C-alpha cells in the first residue's frame, strides 16, 4: 500500500486558504481528509480560540506560540495514521503559519529558529501551496475581516515579510508560491488543482520531517 500524501495550503489571513482546502477535498472525495489549524475543538485549541477572539484573555507570546505548536502535536498521530493507511491529508495552515505569526511579533529571543524548535519532528508536506497577495488592503473588504486578534493591516504586513524570511530559513523543494492577487476562487483552484494531482500521483514512500 502506498502511503497517502500530505498537502498544505498556507498563506496570509483571508487569502482563501479554507475556501481552496474545502474545494480540493470536495473534488477528491473520501480519499482525502481535511485538518485545519488551529484545531479549535481540542482542549488546547479551546485556549487558542479564546486568545484569538477575546482581547481580555491575554497570554505571553511564548506561551501562545507553544500552544499553537502543542495543538499540531495533539493531532499529529491521527494525521500520521491516516497517511499510513493510504489516505491523503489536506492541511489548512500548519508549521509555516506557526513560525511566521510568532516571529513577526519581534520579541527578543523569539527568532525563527526558536519558533521552529517545538515543531521539529512534525511531518513535512509533500506539497505546500502558499497563497500570496500583492496588496493586503483589498482583503479587508472580505467578510469577517478584523474580528480576530492578528487581523490588523500593519501586523499582516510584518507577517508577510516574515513568511518569506521563514521560507529562506526552512529549505523545501515542495513549496510553491501562488499569486492570488485579483484572481477569482475558480481561477485559483484551476491553478492549484493540477499541482495537487501531480503530487498525489507520486509513489514516494519516505516521509520528510521539519
Ligand atoms: N495562527 C495560526 C498562528 O498565529 N499560529 C499558528 O500556528 C496557526 C496555525 C487564525 C489565526 O491564527 C494564526 C493565524 C490567524 O491569524 P485561521 O483560523 O486559519 O487562523 O484563520 P481564519 O480566520 O479561519 O482564516 P483566514 O482569515 O486566514 O481566511 P482564509 O482561510 O485564508 O480565507 P477563506 O477561504 O476563509 O476566505 C475568506 C473570505 O474571502 C472569500 C471567501 O468566500 C470568504 O468570504 N474569498 C474570495 N473572494 C474573492 N476572490 C477570491 N479568490 C476569494 N477566496 C476567498
Ligand atoms: Na481560514
UniProtKB/TrEMBL annotation:
GO terms for molecular function: kinase activity. Gene3D superfamilies: P-loop containing nucleotide triphosphate hydrolases. Keywords: ATP-binding, Kinase, Nucleotide biosynthesis, Nucleotide-binding, Transferase. SUPFAM superfamilies: P-loop containing nucleoside triphosphate hydrolases (SSF52540). Coiled coil: none annotated. Its EC number is 2.7.4.9. PROSITE patterns: THYMIDYLATE_KINASE. InterPro entries: P-loop_NTPase, Thymidylate_kin-like_dom, Thymidylate_kin_CS, Thymidylate_kinase. It is an enzyme of class 2 (transferase). CDD domains: TMPK. Residues 9-192 form the Thymidylate kinase-like domain. It holds the Pfam family Thymidylate_kin. Pathway: Pyrimidine metabolism; dTTP biosynthesis. Belongs to the thymidylate kinase family. HAMAP family: Thymidylate_kinase (MF_00165). This is dTMP kinase. It comes from Kluyveromyces marxianus (Yeast). The gene is CDC8.
Amino acid at each position: 500500500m502506498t502511503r497517502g500524501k500530505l498537502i498544505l495550503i498556507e498563506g496570509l489571513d483571508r487569502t482563501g486558504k479554507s475556501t481552496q482546502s474545502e474545494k480540493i477535498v470536495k473534488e477528491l472525495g473520501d480519499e482525502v481528509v481535511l485538518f485545519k489549524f488551529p484545531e479549535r475543538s481540542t482542549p488546547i485549541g479551546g485556549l487558542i480560540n479564546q486568545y484569538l477572539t477575546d482581547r481580555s484573555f491575554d497570554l505571553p507570546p511564548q506561551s501562545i506560540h507553544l500552544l499553537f505548536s502543542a495543538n499540531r502535536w495533539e493531532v499529529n498521530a491521527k494525521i500520521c495514521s491516516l497517511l499510513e493507511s493510504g489516505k491523503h491529508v489536506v492541511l489548512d495552515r500548519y508549521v509555516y503559519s506557526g513560525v511566521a505569526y510568532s516571529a513577526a511579533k519581534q520579541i527578543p529571543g523569539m527568532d525563527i529558529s526558536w519558533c521552529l524548535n517545538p515543531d521539529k519532528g512534525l511531518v513535512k508536506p509533500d506539497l505546500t501551496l502558499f497563497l500570496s497577495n500583492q496588496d493586503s488592503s483589498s482583503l479587508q473588504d472580505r467578510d469577517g475581516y478584523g474580528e480576530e486578534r492578528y487581523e490588523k493591516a500593519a501586523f499582516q504586513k510584518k507577517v508577510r515579510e516574515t513568511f518569506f524570511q521563514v521560507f529562506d530559513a526552512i529549505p523545501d523543494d515542495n513549496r510553491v508560491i501562488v499569486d492570488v492577487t485579483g484572481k477569482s476562487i475558480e481561477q485559483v483552484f484551476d491553478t492549484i488543482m493540477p499541482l495537487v494531482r501531480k503530487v498525489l500521483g507520486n509513489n514516494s514512500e519516505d516521509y520528510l520531517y521539519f
